[in-house]
Amino acid sequence: MSLVLSHNDIVQIGLRIASSAHLNAFCDHATSKPDIGRRLEDLRIVIYDHIPPSLSLRRCLTLVPNLVDLDLLLSAPFPPNLLDGVILEDLRFFCTNLLHDALVAFFAVHSRLSVLMLESCHAHGLPECPLHVTDLPHLKCISRPASCVSHFAKPGLTRLGMTLPNDTCSILLLLRAIPFRLFSVCTLTIDFRAGDPNILSSVIASCPTVRKLKLLEKPSAACCHVATCCAWNDTATWSKSMRSLTQLEEIMLRTASPIVQRSGNEDNERKVLMRWITGLCSVTRGQPHHHPTLYHIGV
Ligand SMILES: [Zn+2]
User: Fold this and answer.
1) How far, in Å, is the centroid of ligand 1 from the Cα of 142?
2) Ligand 1 centroid, distance to 103 Cα (angstroms)
3) Is pTM, for the whole model, over 0.70?
4) Measured in whole angstroms, how far is the alpha carbon of residue 1 from the centre of its chain?
5) How many angstroms does the Cα of residue 247 sit away from the middle of ligand 1?
6) d(CA 96, ligand 1 centre) in Å
7) pLDDT, tens digit, for every residue of 138-157?
């Protein structure tokens, strides 16, 4: 057992379990001394190298009723009905790779969750993610598969992360399909595809007051060549779009595509980034339109 810092920098009592042997030892210990489990607020069960016994997992989760923060990351195939009957009234932070249809009943009795990190949906073939019937009104932060988490994108959310699990959906379309403008989102992380033309306009449409924006190019299985035509090649439009994000402080862009014709020329790359900031085609001509809040660009 250890003291760990939680998401709020509050000291919590935490434990990390990384094997079935450790899991069983903890269960035995906490059964003989229930205070051991009751004191735990932060539990990370991360067992990837074998399939842990579901009985021990469920027993463990019933021995820690005061958990605030739970990571539950297991190797597949996942134990069925693992969370049935598990009630953690204080749970606020939950990170798991369990199947989404296994989470519906659990979320129905844990509606006060505020931070949620999910892995792949595994709901391929179903018309939509099973979690689309779930309401988590206190959610502040959610991340991972775009088609699953877009359902939770509602007013009040402050952090949104959307990844592309496959080539079948477009995050930009999902962003535009969100029926609310998310004025509360200050941190947005999204995947995009090389050559996507409307990256920033989709962000402006959905999260106009974002402060920290991370754009991660997703390699496409169908398209292995490096894109030569990217949204930022039109510097004037790119710069104007950045200025439309009036509270933007940081933008991080990960791409395999070059931002200048001769990649690796630091001087030219610096000039391009200055054009993003000023909107000028030349550093010596015209009136710069400096972004009012932007202080960090990372490529
Ligand atoms: Zn899902």
Assistant:
1) 12
2) 10
3) yes
4) 28
5) 31
6) 12
7) 999 999 888 889 889 999 99
